[in-house]
Amino acid sequence: MAETEHDLDGAYALKTPDDSVNYYRDWAEKYDRDFAEAMSYRSPSVIAAAFAALGGAGPVLDVGAGTGLVGEALAKTGIGPVDGLDISAEMLAVAAAKGAYRDTITADLTKPLPMPDGIYAGCISAGTFTTGHVGPEAFGELLRVSRPDAVFAITVHSAFYKAAGFAEAFKALGPRIKGFRTEPFAIYGAGAEGEHRGDTGWIVSFRKA
């Protein structure tokens, strides 16, 4: 059987949680080298800097932690402890080995999360809120597990911000959040190649009311 080629086009084509589990299971060991390094992937460092600038503090939930790139970036800021949540146990195994997480949690963001109410002082995420991964419906649960005044800093791919309902969903959260703002950024650095090299996203930030 031929080995599956893993790339952004394949990731963007994912439609279901099971698709993600299967795809990232086989990509986990090569993800950092073949994607993050090859594409000069900026989102983890950008969102960690944004979280720190907002006064973010631990404990933090890294949503869609993958191989732990955001955890590594947060560790450089001195913010912690950080728990990593992802649907892929294999990706989380790579993340855990980096030593940046207090705990790793395998869970599906489209379902109720296995954590009690109000345990996190912040939520951070890079690269999770995009097509084929997780839509805006996840924010109900993320708000539930967060404390009042918790800092949220996440990236949303600009191509899907309106198309996938994020803009309407954030507006509908209304009195549940405060200090909402968005800021554009380049997802990839100067070393990126291919048709996605110019992709942009939004840094979305707010606090739980």
Task: Give the secondary structure arrangement, pairings included.
Elements: H1 8-12, H2 17-27, H3 31-37, H4 43-53, E1 60-63, H5 69-77, E2 82-86, H6 89-97, E3 103-106, E4 120-129, H7 139-144, E5 146-157, H8 166-173, E6 177-186, E7 200-208
Helix pairs in contact: 4-5
Task: Work out the radius of gyration.
Answer: 16 Å
What proportion of the residues form beta strands (DSSP E)? 25-35%
- Along the chain, the helix and strand elements come as HHHHEHEHEEHEHEE
Helix-and-strand structural type: alpha/beta
Major sheet attributes: 7 strands, mixed
How many separate structural domains?
1
Mean pLDDT: 87
What form results from the Cα inertia axes?
Answer: globular
The CATH architecture assignment turns out to be: 3-Layer(aba) Sandwich
Helix content: 25-40%
Strand tally is 7
Which strand order spans the largest sheet, edge to edge or round the barrel?
A: 3-2-1-4-5-7-6
Low-pLDDT sequence parts: none
Query: Count of helical segments?
Result: 8
Q: Examine the coordinates and then state which fold CATH places here, giving the name of the CATH topology.
A: Rossmann fold
Spatial separation of the terminal alpha carbons: 52 Å
CATH superfamily: Vaccinia Virus protein VP39
